[in-house]
Amino acid sequence: MMTLTAPLVFADLLAQAKKLRETNAWKPFRPGVGAHWLYEDEDGAAAVLLHYEPGAQVALHEHVGYEQMLVLEGEQSDEAGSYPAGSFVINPPGTSHSPRSAAGCVALLIYEKAVRFP
């Protein structure tokens, strides 16, 4: 777990995400989904790059705090719709979904609090 004590800057995050996609710097998150944690705080606040392999899906989960997601590459979808690269989605507390990617994608997710899996 990495608690921030000073600003954390990622210059040209898009280029960094593209380079990361070609490496094995991803930790297993869910089957077919790798995670590269930018930070993770003790209270559940976090920022993470998620790399979905084609056809990967994350199980249904509930947002306890706000989740903000920016699709950097590819397309992600859930029960509410499809989100191509450049889409910014805010999932408020109390909402649930099961995100997936048919062709694969990379997305930046920022969590206010950790999500809850049933």
Automatic annotation (TrEMBL):
Residues 23-108 form the ChrR-like cupin domain. InterPro entries: ChrR-like_cupin_dom, RmlC-like_jellyroll, RmlC_Cupin_sf. Pfam families: Cupin_7. This is ChrR-like cupin domain-containing protein.
